[in-house]
Specification:
The chain has 17 helices and 13 strands. By secondary structure, it is of the alpha/beta class. A six-stranded mixed beta sheet has the order 3-2-1-4-5-13, with helices on both faces. Strand 4, helix 10 and strand 5 form a beta-alpha-beta unit. Helix 5 runs parallel beside helix 11. The radius of gyration is 22 Å and the shape is globular. The structure holds uracil.
């Protein structure tokens, strides 16, 4: 097989065979196909697309490019969820505990964050001693025993994706539905769970800006999952304002704890409940949404969800005292209240900008090498649709260094106001799959 012919084929808008896709991914993994040829094929895919069969084969070939976790020794259905990422997204922390308290087995591998705030792993590491580097055996044992573990990637998962993503990043070929869908799904498939729930966010703070684009990506990922024998569903969710009230690692851990205790913000709680309903049905723990919601409500009100979170933290070596008393989590030196300079209904909150401002406080990384300050971040005291008077509290800033005037001015630009009432947008727009 000549790789040049494969590039020609895609240039001419033809579908690639399974063998051709496998040949490509083998060549990427073994470094036998040069980057300039892969870059050329990537661009042809961006321009001419891939059909569902090609996309599923690409995900499968990437999944098999490295280690694939075998969770079959753990009894029952193993479930995973994935979010395309957003500002203030601490869903895995609360949701994992909620559904595991209902009897679901959650085996989750998460990532670190780049830009905005940290990823799930960074948030977990704001708990003293929390170990995200379990061995595969420790991970499986924990999921068997308590039904919940969240760790960083073990072994070498999907090396082909690492190489392709690095090339896509520098060849203007990130933005392609088949490439994004196969990249995300190859990692989910290699993590070994039987069911996958995708939280595909749309809006200003999200990877996909519009509902339509988010749905197209979600459908592409559902098709891959189902073709490869995983029960895959997706939620299309709003990211036109930060999720919940907090942005920043320890602040988000605190909010996740409050949520599993039943005291979480409305939008974040609702997102977790909807996601929990789907996961409990995928895992055959509940037969209907109504039954699932009741189970989740009971897990919260009985304290079982909180107990499950404590158990996970204890198993992974974290300081449970910080979970019992969140004042023991890292605390910032300074707390500054940002009061509104305007009156009106909050029309828009530029979540991406707020995420970047939180990153400048130290809550996220601008480059892979940056370290994270777990204590700093923002607490939203007002959200979209709230009626605000001049001088009302908009947001509380937790910081370790003096706020610069430029930061403050940029903060005020993230809120816009209107005289007209603003209709609330549902947090979950649609469920697919
Ligand atoms: N996230 C991924 O893992 N891959 C992509 O291609 C885009 C976002």
């Amino acid at each position: 097989m000549r790789f040049l012919d494969i590039i020609e084929k895609k240039k001419n808008k033809l579908a690639l065979t399974d063998e051709e896709i496998q040949f490509w991914i083998d060549g990427v993994t073994n470094d036998t196909i040069p980057d300039y040829q892969t870059s050329s094929l990537l661009m042809a895919i961006v321009l001419n697309g891939m059909d569902e069969k090609e996309t599923a084969k690409l995900a499968e070939a990437m999944m098999n490019s490295g280690d694939v976790l075998d969770l079959s020794g753990i009894p029952g259905i193993k479930s995973d969820k994935h979010s395309t990422g957003g500002v203030g997204d601490k869903t895995s922390l609360a949701l994992g505990a909620m559904v595991a308290a209902c009897g679901l087995k959650v085996a989750k591998m998460s990532g670190r964050g780049l830009g905005h705030t940290g990823g799930t792993l960074d948030k977990l590491e704001s708990i003293e001693g929390f170990n995200i580097f379990l061995t595969e055996d420790q991970f499986k044992k924990q999921v068997s025993e308590i039904g919940l573990s969240i760790i960083g990637q073990t072994g070498e998962l999907v090396p082909a994706d690492k190489k392709l993503y690095a090339l896509r990043d520098v060849t203007a070929t990130v933005n392609s539905i088949p490439l994004i869908a196969s990249s995300i799904m190859s990692k989910k498939l290699a993590s070994g769970s039987n069911t996958i729930l995708l939280d595909v966010k749309y809006g200003e703070g999200a990877f996909m800006q519009t509902i339509e684009d988010a749905k197209t990506l979600a459908n592409a990922m559902i098709s891959i999952g189902n073709r490869l024998g995983r029960n895959t569903m997706a939620m299309i969710t709003d990211m036109n304002q930060p999720l919940g009230n907090t942005i920043g690692n320890a602040l988000e851990v605190e909010e996740a704890i409050e949520t599993v205790k039943g005291n979480g913000p409305k939008d974040f709680t609702e997102l977790c409940m909807c996601a929990g309903e789907i996961m409990l049905m995928q895992g055959k723990i509940a037969n209907s949404k109504e039954e699932a919601r009741k189970m989740l409500q009971e897990a919260i009100s009985s304290g079982k969800a909180f107990e499950k979170l404590l158990q996970m933290v204890e198993y992974q070596g974290g300081n449970v005292e910080q979970i019992k008393n969140t004042k023991l989590l890292p605390q910032a030196k300074f707390v500054t209240e940002m009061k509104s300079r305007e009156a009106g209904y909050v029309e828009h909150i530029h979540s991406q900008q707020l995420g970047i401002l939180a990153m400048h406080l130290g809550a996220g990384r601008a480059t892979k090498e940056d370290s994270i300050n777990y204590a700093v971040g923002l607490r939203m005291n007002s959200k979209k649709g709230d009626k605000i008077e001049t001088g009302d509290l908009l947001c509380t800033v937790y910081h370790d260094e003096e706020l610069k005037q430029e930061w403050i001015e940029n903060f005020y630009k993230t809120f816009s106001f209107t005289d007209n009432k603003v209709d609330p947008i549902p947090i979950v727009e649609e469920i697919l799959g």
